[in-house]
Amino acid sequence: MAFMIVRSFHIYVPNIQTCKQLLTGSRAFSHFCQKMRQFPVGYFDSSILENRREFLCTSCRNYHVKLKNHTSPVVETIQHLGEANNNLKSNSKTLGEQIFLKELNQWSSYKDIFKFVSTLDNLSDTMVAAIFQRLGEVQLQDSLIKSPELLMENDMFKSLCLRLEKESTHLSDSALVNSLNALTKLHVDPCSSLMVCLVSESQQRLDKGQMTIQNLCILGEGLFNLGGSEHAMLEQIMNQIQSTNVEDWKIEEMVLVYRTLQLCVGRKMNLFQNLLSKMNSFAEMEGCQFTPKQTSTVLSALVVLDETQVNNLIIKLCKHASCYIPYFTDDEMINVLEAFIHFRCSDQGFTEALERHVTKFAFVMHPNTISKTMQYCSTLCILSKPIFNAVAETFVYSADNFTVSQIVEQVVPFGKLNYLPPSAPSFFRQVERFVSMRLSEFEPHELLKLLHSCILIKCYPLNFMEKLFSPFFLQELQAETPRSKILSQLTQLFLTIQLECPYYKKPWLSLDYQVKSFYTRCESLESKVDLHLFNRVKAGMIDLLGSQKYFVYNVLTPYHYTIDIEIKLNEEGFVLPVNAHDEIYERIALCIDDEKRFCANTHNLLGKESIKQRHLKLIGYVVVQIPFFEFNPLDNKNDVVEYLHKKVFPNFYSFHENKAESK
């Protein structure tokens, strides 16, 4: 049976009395019937004209929606009859499901969606499920449902729910599981008759064992939303999935199963490990066919499942993701970046593609995406100047669009990777303004982390030192963890102010909050020396000086820093034994810097290494840097000795004469 859409007869009536007045007048109804008969036969259900009583009954209902395969048409609330008489219009056919879905996705609020739905005559069960799904998408914002009370009280929403409950046994499997999944995201009461009915019907169909992989996965997600990973039906779903042959799956089905396994973490995962292994092997072969959304979904699942043993799959997906950067949504991009961070996976092609994207779209990217991009660079020590410059420029002009946590995530990498952008003056003025305006919103550890990162690149937050060293703030910090890192940051902040801002005479940091050494097991402010590189340098120093008694290693200074190798000189420039204390005129500190002390693939020292060498110079040391990229290419002992000779004693060689006289 064909139905027609009569747009001008879709009424928004202020009250029922108006509706009655419009429809009970015989002239009005006769006029309407005459207008209807002008249209070709078959465009509409003739029962509308033949049965006036039925018409009046259905017309006065606000939102009467019938599902597919039922005989009554959709007849919505009615507009003003005067407009209907003058502006009567019709469509020759009901919108197809595909056209409907395309139209539906254009609306971004539940009011617009219901307004659009109210213009339709017939809704299939697939369409109803799609409506609930779209409502979940537009209502969900930052993991919270917008205006849930208004949505639940909406007449159209109630009518759709009521019809869904009545027709649950006649729904297709797809419509059933999609509707259930969407309603759980809308936080419909799990104990409501509708939800109980849908879950019960789902259980009956699950017991028959005839659901497709796709419907099983969608049902699993809905049940997880209802009861978490402990929901009783989840294991039954996974057992049915596991009984199938992975090689027969479509790519779309495999991606859905990854997502379902992600939900089952912690619930007998060992039972499904064999299935996961097969999926990983299959995904490694078929990964190049993934769409941007599928790539993001699989990487996100691998992070939650902590699949650290499938390096080839992860590397392949990460490389594949570099082609999709312009096409990822913000959420998908965040999932991909989190995977890079979790697996410590970096790819030059991905970084270059990310640079092109950020420099072009930084001003319109979501704040969470910008923050996650900076976290990616920071965690993997990737100093991408195009990204850092673009983020700094964006921050200057739109700092107020960011939350406190997002600001911390964006500013800290500049200090960690020891980089000042071209817009540094305006950038840090904006940082200071932001912190001053929203100081009360900062968690104590966030404020400390932000201010500490600034001193690494010679930006001194003097206006906030009084706050930072106040007894109340320090007491709040004591509850934070890890405590050793917090005390180290406080100590280094205080030391920096002492050494680099001697004119600042405000509050001092109590010894109770100072550490003896910046080297700690947990997130140390100093990098431990690479043992292999250290042993090579140590052997070279013995060959150069003739004995190990002329230098000492791992020296802890009174200023909390640990020196890799220390050499003492007297006033005449002679090298002194390590046990000499009275004749010391100068100390040389050798910093043996391996790859971990630099930003990835660069010769740019990390912020914590830069400030260490800066402070060692200020407390009187002659700092000699032995970087890996200069020392590693040296092939033989003579080259090593000559290199160390020139680096450590560039201007005088008195120790040679001293060595000859001693012989």
Offer a concise description of the structure.
This protein has 663 residues and is mostly helical. Helix content is 56%, strand content 6%. Among the domains are: 95-140 and 149-244; 531-648, Endonuclease, Chain A.
Flag low-confidence runs.
1-95, 653-661
Please summarize the sheet with the most strands: 5 strands, mixed
According to DSSP, the number of beta strands is 9
Would you tell me the structural class of the helices and strands? Answer: mainly alpha
What's the helical proportion of residues?
A: 55-70%
Measured by DSSP, the beta-strand proportion falls in 5-15%
Rounded to an integer, what's the Rg over CA atoms? Answer: 35 Å
Give the CA-CA distance, first to last residue.
113 Å
Let me know the average pLDDT: 82
Q: Helix segment count?
A: 33
Which word captures the global form?
Answer: elongated
Question: How do the strands and helices of this protein lay out in sequence?
Answer:
Layout lengths: L15 H9 L1 H12 L9 H4 L1 H8 L3 E2 L10 E2 L4 H6 L10 H8 L5 H8 L7 H15 E2 L2 E2 L2 H5 L2 H12 L6 H13 L7 H16 L4 H15 L4 H11 L8 H13 L9 H14 L5 H14 L5 H11 L8 H13 L5 H14 L5 H13 L5 H14 L5 H13 L7 H14 L6 H12 L9 H4 L2 H8 L4 H18 L30 H15 L6 E5 L5 E8 L5 E2 L9 E8 L13 H12 L2 E7 H4 L5 H12 L5 H9 L1
Parallel strand pairs: 8-9
Antiparallel strand pairs: 1-2, 3-4, 5-6, 6-7, 6-8
